Amino acid sequence: MITAAVGTLLSAVFFNAKADEGMWLPSLISERIGDMQSKGFRLDAEDIYSINQASLKDAVVLFGRGCTGELISGEGLLLTNHHCGYAQIQKHSSVEHDYLKDGFWAMSRDEELPNEGLTVSFLDRMEDVTSAVLNGYEEGMTEAQRDSVVKANSAALIEKATAGGKGLDADVEALYYGNQYFLFVYRVYNDIRLVGAPPSSIGKFGGDTDNWMWPRHTGDFSIFRIYADKDNNPAEYSEDNVPYRPKRHFSISLGGVQEGDFTFVYGFPGSTREYIMSEGVRYISEISDPNKIALRTLRLEIQDRYMSQSQDVRIKYSSKNASVANSWKKWQGEMRGIRKMGTVGKKREYERKFREWAEGTAYDGLVARLDSLYRILEPYSYASDYYAETAWTVELGRFATGYSDLYAKAALSSSDTVAEKFLKEAERMAASFYKDYYLPIDKESFIAVMDMFDRNMPDGSKPEYFFRNMKRYGSVEVWADSLFGNSVFADSSVLYGTIAGQAPHDAWMTISSDPATEFGREFRKWYSEEIRPSAKRISDEINLTYRDYMRGQMEFEPERTFYPDANLTLRVAYGSVQGYSPADGTYYFPVSTIEGIMQKDNPEIFDYDVPERLREIYRTKDYGRWAVTGPDGRKTVPVCFIATNHTSGGNSGSPVINADGNLIGINFDRVWEGTMSDIVFDPDLCRNIALDIRYVLFIIDKVAGAGHLLDEMTFTE
Ligand code: ARG
Ligand code: GLU
Q1: pLDDT digits 0-9 by tens, 522-537
Q2: Residue 414 lies in a domain
Q3: DSSP assignment of 287-313, as one string?
Q4: Ligand positioned closest to the Cα atom of 675
Q5: Among the four 267, 339, 650, 709, which has the fewest Cβ within 10 Å?
Q6: Longest distance between any two alpha carbons in the chain, whole Å
Q7: Considering the entire predicted model, what is its pTM?
Q8: Which ligand is nearest to the CA of 212?
Q9: Is any ligand 2 atom within 6 A of the Cβ of residue 645?
Q10: Which range marks the domain in which residue 498 is found?
Q11: Cβ contacts of residue 315 below 8 Å, gap of 6+?
Q12: For the segment 560-573, what is each residue's pLDDT rounded down to a tens digit?
């Protein structure tokens, strides 16, 4: 934590306090391995990451575009969270086959369900390419010139890295605001099939009520299988594909966890901003988070009301609702945590010391410059937040615009086959849109958020289109009546009926003047012409200044160990199983059990309605080999645990690993009091939440009756 370094106390306190902060690059883990071993880890750096032999990294994947997963069998079996597989489970669900509600278990390989568009990526290797990326860059170049050097060199590196291998993909990522560059080479598999998911009453037990909270009892896991061609290479879905044979899969520890045990989390954290200055933190915690929370509160109330009235609507909006609610709740914890820690004030104090130190150096004036850039950026950030949480959330507008764009592309394409491709894409887009659309929710949300837009956006920054319509209709309500009442997109059969038989160009003309299309398009135009360019220009300036400020901080605090901010690249976080005290007089133990599930059980409350099968197992204490002795000496089943690992969004589904490199849990969340860790880490409060692997096995074996899957796995004590 930057602020702890302030003053003369750069001492033992500072070091201890920082013990578990950090998300480390696996290829540089030799720099941390001594510390890891001193805390109990019994393996070596080469066991974590190696380019010469199979290592744990070969058993970890980026799941989709924002989760992590891990291999748990020699036949491509993969574990991730229920909420990471949620969209897939939902896509296979209908009122007749409600896999969200009832769970899904493939009892044989041919029952495993393919998922179009889902990928998993294995990291092949990573490499510091800073000098190659900056080759040709000279002191005194403008940022734009530097950018084009970086882009050209990166493109060349990527091309070289991906030549001649099936499914190879690569990225060059900037670390420390472009003080360092790394090449990441991935192998991407795209035939990924759903093998199993518990019912939501287990996989999402506690729902959004318990989300981001401890004590927790969510069985948040789902199981997939990676398929490959007969040579074990990535291949499009085909019946001829066979289960992928990984270089390495995890052994599963049945030994359990105790307070104080060493743990490490290996996964893909998405984004953190640990080194930003006070103004950035102030904007997030005092303006952005509160605004976004207020806007989402409105939408959530509307969704919740309709979802509680109909199972059909509940299925349609479950995935959308979960993602709206998830950030909504996280921001509340984040803003509270930042305030509680006094991070803005502490950073200001740090910056004051930095400025003193920087006088007369190359870093002179940086803080003042950042400060003034943030002030220039603020109205644009404000407008961007408002756009993202208002007009952009109107489902009909976004769909109509996207659909019409595809028709435009089809109409303007030079060949019929190209046009056909776009029309097919439009068809798919429409099918998936209408499957999960419920107009009354969208219309009420439109009224709620556009009303806030009207009241809270300064008049000078509103789009002309907005004024025109407010003048024409007199109120957001009447505008909504007209838009949702007249749009052909409001009903799929009206849309299809309207464009049936029309040539792409005519169809495009028809739908592009539709009020929903117009709404989406006009707001997008406003945002992309009047807001984004300035926001981007100023943000680029800020990032550029951060590049120097980052180096400055490193020189200012030479004793401190820095780690790069998360950017959805593979990282290692390590710590230990620890409880915490969220408030005076309260202490949370680090382990939860099935007792807690039964204490929460309440058939009246959707989030806490325990499935009958689990109740019965509990009643008869039929735990089989999964029984452990609980803290009170009685037989029980472990469910979740918390630890001090520094994780972030994207770490969902990450393996939680013990001192011997074996799997003990699946990461799925953080505690609410610690969600500010994307910006500032408090070792007293920041905890990751993991699902105990033994609960996963218990559910598969005892509840799902899919014990055959256990035969593929490797166990150890
Ligand atoms: N908070 C966890 C994460 O950020 C879990 C989210 C899914 N669960 C939910 N109830 N919305 O992804
Ligand atoms: N649930 C989060 C995810 O999907 C992980 C929790 C976090 O943000 O730490 O990545």
Answers
A1: 999 999 999 999 999 9
A2: yes
A3: IIHHHHHHHHHHHHHHHHHHHTT-HHH
A4: 2
A5: 339
A6: 77
A7: 0.92
A8: 1
A9: no
A10: 394-532
A11: 90, 93, 94, 95, 98, 100, 101
A12: 999 999 999 999 99
